[in-house]
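Supplementary Note 2. Why include the ligand at all?

Several targets in our set were suspected to adopt different conformations when bound, so apo predictions alone were not considered sufficient. For every target with a known small-molecule partner we therefore ran a joint prediction. The input for zinc ion is given below.
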Amino acid sequence: MSESNDMAGATNLLTAEQQRRYLAHGGNHCPCCEGEEIEGTGQSNSDADWHENEVECKTCGAIWLDIYTISGVQGVSGPVEKAIGKAPHQKKNA
Ligand SMILES: [Zn+2]
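The joint prediction is reproduced in token form.
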């Protein structure tokens, strides 16, 4: 129905078994020919909680999408530290 998400909405050309084996190996080989010469095409698409990355097999020419969803969060620098336990716009200590 919706045309807003072409890449994810495309027909999946991989069988359930191909998907299972690809994921079991951490996406390190082609799901079609099992070749290891695979490379991102540079095409990608993302939103706040997911990311998809187009990958191509140099051996058989298959193209597929690696789909990532958010799995964790880690604070890295200052502002995160300040935000914890304090509402940003609250000034009670006057
Ligand atoms: Zn292949």
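Residues 30, 32-33, 35, 57, 59-60, 62 surround zinc ion (CB under 6 Å). The longest strand covers residues 38-46. Comparable summaries for the other entries are listed in the accompanying table.
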